[in-house]
Amino acid sequence: MTKITIRRVGPVHTASVKTEAPARVARLFAGLAARGRGTGAGLVFLSGGLAGGVDTVAERLSELRTRLPILVATGAGVLTERGEIERESAAAMMFWQGGESELVIEGGGAADEIANALATRLGPLLRTGARTALVLLKPDGVGPRTLEPFQALSGSESVFGGGCLSGLPVLGVQPNGGVERGDGAALVIAGQGKPSIASSAACRLLMPPRSISETRGPMVMRIEGERALDVLGAVASRAENGPLILTALFDEEDESGVHLVRPIQGVDPMLGGLLVSDEVRPGRRIAFAVRDAEAARLGLEAETRRLEQSTAGAAPRFGVYMNCAGRGSALYASEDVDTRIIRARFPNMPWVGMSSSFEIAPYQGRP
Predict the structure, then answer these.
(1) Between the CA of residue 33 and those of 8, 65, 93, 306, 352, what are the distances in Å?
(2) What is the pLDDT of residues 203-223, one digit of tens each?
(3) What DSSP assignment string belongs to 4-23?
(4) Sign of the alpha-carbon dihedral angle for 155, 249, 332, 309
(5) pTM (2 decimals)?
(6) Which pLDDT band, with edges at 50, 70 and 90, does 10 fall under?
(7) Which residues have C-beta within 8 Å of that of residue 270, sequence separation ≥ 6?
(8) Cβ atoms 160, 189 nearer than 8 A
């Protein structure tokens, strides 16, 4: 069964469709783009069976000859301001008029090589004016170090994005109609003003942050003199139903509460260490945490409130939302919780997004 929803807000148009047919996706996008004139760009996110046919969808879009850059990517689900579509074959798309957008695609290497190639090409583009870079990467081989090439760029505070589905490419339809296939992509958006970007974790801390006193590479050995594994054991005994325990990393001097969430990748029972990431270091603070629906809801409400305040009364033209695949109904046992929170703050803003395998957002001014 095909179900289509369309919304038009000025020169920005969004749509979503539940379908297995790539041709239907292309026809729907053609209808959106036909309503605009001149420059612009498009985003098309795919899930379910359509995700597996991402190459075919891109080819169908290229046949439209819209003369627009169109970024085509896959996620565990898709969404617009009207709601989320989970565990179904579906597409969500957005077309906007105006400004100048440039699509950069890279492929044929390891994740770190792809990121370095993208950053090299993005450097000159981000230096000119207020520009935003939406970066999407295949998750295979991606780690915290993967983003280091972006962090040195001028304008890197305007870089955001996320991870697509493993094993599937990221594609771009260029204005000349050509299709580029890669492992990473960046859509550079200009002429839309400076972006407002925020992130919100879906975690509840199980302890106050404590200082790391000893590390060995990416392994946390001791926390304020105690074996890291012993600290984890004491915290885990208080967690209900044995949920997956994560780590939250805080900078030494930052009292804002903003933190990075990282998984525990392994343990050393003999030495009592925990394998976390290359970002750990003595002096940095750490806490253990679990996914939590109430914390996720409150966190997103706080961030959307901050975003609303940061716009100083100006109405945002549109938004892009990378929603962690661990959220949605799997977390809340209810649908459309996150989309309702955003819609409550920005009732007239069109936006599009997908359920991503990881998220890229500014932290301490760097992606």
Answers:
(1) 11, 11, 11, 32, 15
(2) 999 999 999 999 999 999 999
(3) EEEEEETTEEEEEEE-S-HH
(4) negative
(5) 0.92
(6) low
(7) none
(8) no
